[in-house]
Amino acid sequence: MEAEQQRRKGQKRKLEEESSAASAASSSSDVEEEDETGVEEICFPRSQEALAREVRAQVEVLERAFSWNLADRAAAKRATRALAKLAKSEEAVSVIVEGGAVPALVKHLQEPPPLLVRDDCASGGDRPFEHRVEKWSAFALFLLATKPEYQQLIDDAGALPLLMNLLKRHKKGSNCRAVNGVIWRAAGAITNLAHENRNIKTYVRVEGGIPLLVQLLESIDVKVQSAAAGALRTLASKNESNKNQIVECKALPSLILMLQSVDPSVHYEAFILLVSGIDEGDKASVSFVTSTICIVTSDPFHLFPRKVVLPQHNIGANMKFESEKMNTLVRARGKKDGRKPACNLLYAGRKWSLEMSCVGVIRNLVHSSPNIKKEVLLAGALQPVIGLLSSCCTGSQKEAALLLGQFASANSKCKVQIVQRGALRPLIEMLQSSDVQLKEMSAFALGRLAQDSHNQAGIVFNGGLVPLLKVLDSKNESLQHNAAFALFGIAENEDNVADFVKLGGVQQLQDGEFVVQVTQDCIANTLKRLEVKINGRVLMHLLYLMRVGKKAVQRSIALALAHLCPPDEQRRIFIDNNGIDILLELLSSANLKQQQDGLLALYKMASRAMMLSSVDAAPQSPTPWVYLGEQYVNNSTLSDVTFLVEGKCFYAHRIALLASSDAFRAMFDGRYREKDARDIEILDIRWDIFELMMRYIYSGSVEINNLVAQDLLRAADQYLLKGLKRLCEYIIKQDVNIDNVSSMYELSEACNAISLRQTCILFILEQFEKLSILPGYCHLIQRIVPGIRSYFDKALKPNSKNSES
């Protein structure tokens, strides 16, 4: 359970990081959105020393330029903007912090002191760059706070109270761009400061930050909405008190309305506008822009990269020229059509960030909070979240799938409702994405939905089984486990078993490489569940498909049944319905994997056969008709027949020989010349072997070692001494190995040694991997096919119930 919780936390953390990255990318892109005419470009220093000097120079400006004086405000704006630009480079963040920028930036999160009357008159009575200096300060702190080690430093500098004061500026009744910009940046800075920081999350709640953020959800500015939702998402993570207050502040209706009103089509419109304004001579510019403009997430037509920031300090002169050329073309197109410049429309991808933020807030609210989950569902969140499964934004799809998985938790009653409202098809389509994390979230949701019987059938009917089996081959452990859990649920429904088997699902479960133990356990339980289901109508269906289906289907079914069918149904399946022929055909395949599958299936069948225990037991000596005793072995007393072996006389007694086997009875009672002969010559048996054979005839037992066992077996077969044959076979079987199994099989055929033959067959089936690399392997396999068929015909006993019927 602990490993599972860690895995879930990892999934959640991935999505939060992706969403935060999307917000950061969106924020970075909007730095370029404003008209900065007259403001000199910031050149990124090429060395650490130059960077430190640049940072210190900007900090000194901020320390002295804190007034409403026009020159001071302009200088403060340039300095805060410069630091924000520099902070976009991860390598520069530490230098900026070490240069003392944090206190200076925090200082400019607030307005300067009020102007004196004479200064007010001198400046014309206005408030130059109102909101803009605070906006750039908040944005710079937002970027610095992306590194967790600087969160506390920024908080200790007094940033949080000032940032929350910036959120209140919407109360001034102005929806101007400057006000929205500073609120947006302030909310973003709070988000990064609160990330995984329990103390800051608590502080924001205690100081009244949550009601302010909830109010901002109703802003008409999409950026402000997205930033507020993102902050609430972070504050709700792992903090029950914050969750409860967010719900108490009536955030749910606004969040759900935001989900329903988002229009991601703006992003595609931007691309059409951009490309339609460019002729063939400017295609290089298109290539440059599509490789550098920051896009929040991948677009529906895969026209843009997923997340790339435009670092002006790293591009060469030619590329910079291309950038300026492209901006000129875009702005001209926008003015011509009377619409926004296309680059601004490209940044409409922030609406996707809004989707992700909204659904992220809801997901964090319902996590481990059953009561809030109920309120979220009652507020009507289910259908909008299902709708996001078809979003053009993969991030929104991931968040929606994960949230639906939480809705469909073990105690939830809405599993069927989720499917009825249309979630199944988009979830299955997501499984076929190239995005591993998107597939992971989809499999997670399907795994939860597959805990309902009707949903289990629906997933298979809608084509979900094949992609779930396919992602089992993934090297991603979380994706693999989520798919395994979904398949475990699907296997519970009898209606799915035939599809599972005929598609080769059983072989895939058996052959898969599953590193994590919890996944291995899940796969093992799935196979057990399938094994339990294979009886009655399910078995009848599989037998029908095995008779009339395509060759590949027949093979999959025969292989699966060899491993999973009830032992008392084996004869019905493999003898009566010719399943054994399908498996034996695999042994003749040129495909080594098919050969191995067939051999493994046959070995599994043999190991499940009930008679194997009696085959391996040491045979008991038979009770002879006449028992003369060992003292009469080669004893001339009362001897009435003499055998000449290797020139030596061996004295015997006809009465003992007649009772021992049909061979001796035919010799002495039949029409053979030995009938009346006093001396009988033995030409093809050595003396020691003949003596052991006679000792067995007279006493019913004999000590046999592996040096004489094979020759003694041949003698026992020649004289039809069944008991002695079994004893010899038992000794020989102990010595079967990789090197001699072929010759042992030949011996079993020559002597009609059934027990030895069965042992050789089982050994070959079990050790096929080692044998397959030896010369003559294919020939050996073909030689044992008749023996395999004969073995199973005898080994598989009829089911008494089937026989009676």
From TrEMBL:
Superkingdom assignment: Eukaryota
Biased segments, Basic and acidic residues type: 1-17
Biased composition (Acidic residues): 30-39
Domain BTB: 639-706
Pathway named in the protein's UniProt entry: Protein modification; protein ubiquitination
Disordered: annotated span: 1-39
SUPFAM superfamilies linked to this entry: ARM repeat, POZ domain
Composition-biased stretches (Low complexity): 20-29
Pfam families per the UniProt record, alphabetical: Arm, BTB
Ranges: ARM repeats: 158-208, 208-243, 422-464, 463-505
Protein name, per record: BTB domain-containing protein
